[in-house]
Write a structure and sequence with these properties.
Structural class: alpha/beta
Shape: elongated
Oligomer: single chain
Largest sheet: 9 strands, mixed
Number of strands: 14
Number of helices: 14
């Protein structure tokens, strides 16, 4: 279960002392997205204390989580890229959003304070296509009068693994730049024209912290816990905003989960003066027919507990909890779709 890796990643990159217990009969297993790892770890610690049931979660990236749940090697998969209804049906899966957060551009530039620098999606697309290569390029200078920018090459950092964070990042850049959409596109893994890779949000954060004059993209909890330098970002209403849970909430305000087939909803580039442009939900994937009904029920009990008791912890880490009406939709979906081998509902 790569437990040592998980605990080390948690302590090094997140700073939350979660207790992932040695597995026993009631413990549940999950794998996937690194985007929600800080909050899943915090929930796991509190849930273990409250119920005695442990969660063993492998923070391996959304691509790995999708593969593992399809292979039935974990009780649930986690992905920041939702699967479309056709794929869910073909694999016998169902999905639901668990938490909302934001992907944030981060830089390592001497003398530049967090939030002091402004970026647009078009400029970020140019950097990630290798078309803007210097920090003192005219496009960056024009956005940042008064900010001292070095005449140095930009070191681009991206994910090396299949990643929902990359999906959200490339989905956003594809929406604001037709050239990026054509040249690079949107997926959990793309062929980057430039840059170096880091595994997980942890790996990208570590590379940006280590390398002067670099830029990367990570989930906001990693920015906060590692005291990284984030930029402002111009949203679709033309307002420069900084990342926080209120701006993630604003981006999610117009989300109509009830009308989204299979709860497939991508929250990038949403309207609203306060909306953070690279906002996304993290999804849980489960099999509709549960070979081990008790394990399946334990997964649902964990997320039910998290929805009811985990809101303050989510806010503390700058995530956004699922609104109460959406939780009702989610749990109604559990009743309708997730069943044991005999067809009996688990919830």
């Amino acid at each position: 279960m790569q437990m040592n890796h998980v605990v080390k990643s948690l302590i090094a990159a997140v700073g939350v002392a979660a207790s992932f217990s040695v597995a026993h009969a009631a413990d549940i297993t999950g794998a996937g997205a690194t985007f929600p790892f800080p909050i899943y770890a915090k929930w796991a610690e509190a849930y273990k204390k409250a119920t005695g049931t442990g969660l063993n979660y492998q923070s391996i990236g959304s691509g790995g989580g999708i593969k593992q749940i399809k292979a039935k090697t974990v009780d649930f998969g986690a992905s920041d890229m939702p699967l479309k209804l056709e794929e869910l049906d073909a694999e016998g899966l169902t999905q639901f959003p668990a938490v909302i957060g934001g992907v944030v551009p981060v830089v390592n530039l001497d003398g530049v304070a967090p939030g002091a620098m402004k970026m647009t999606g078009e400029v970020l697309a140019g950097i990630y296509m290798g078309k803007i290569t210097k920090w003192n390029a005219a496009e960056i200078v024009a956005l940042n009068p008064g900010v001292k920018l070095p005449a140095e090459d930009i070191t681009v950092v991206h994910r090396s693994d299949g990643s929902g964070t990359t999906f959200l990042w490339t989905d956003y850049l594809s929406k604001v730049s037709a050239e990026f959409k054509t040249a690079v596109g949107s997926a959990t893994a793309v062929k980057w024209p430039v840059g170096m890779g880091g595994k997980g949000n942890e790996g990208v954060a570590a590379n940006v912290q280590r390398i002067k004059n670099s830029i990367g993209y990570v989930e906001y909890a990693f920015v906060k816990r590692n005291k990284m330098t984030h930029t402002q970002l111009k949203n679709t209403d033309g307002v420069y905003v900084s990342p926080d849970d209120e701006n993630f909430k604003a981006a999610a305000a117009n989300a109509d989960w009830a009308k989204a087939p299979g709860m497939y909803l991508v929250l990038t580039n949403q309207p609203g003066k306060a909306s953070w442009p690279v906002t996304g939900a993290s999804f849980i994937l489960m099999h509709k027919s549960q070979a081990d009904a008790e394990k399946g029920k334990e997964v649902l009990k964990f997320f039910d507990w998290a929805f009811k008791n985990g809101g303050a912890m989510a806010t503390e880490l700058e995530y956004v909890s699922m609104p109460t009406p959406v939780v009702k939709q989610i749990e109604d979906g559990w009743k309708a779709k997730i069943k044991d081998g005999s067809g009996k509902a688990l919830w």
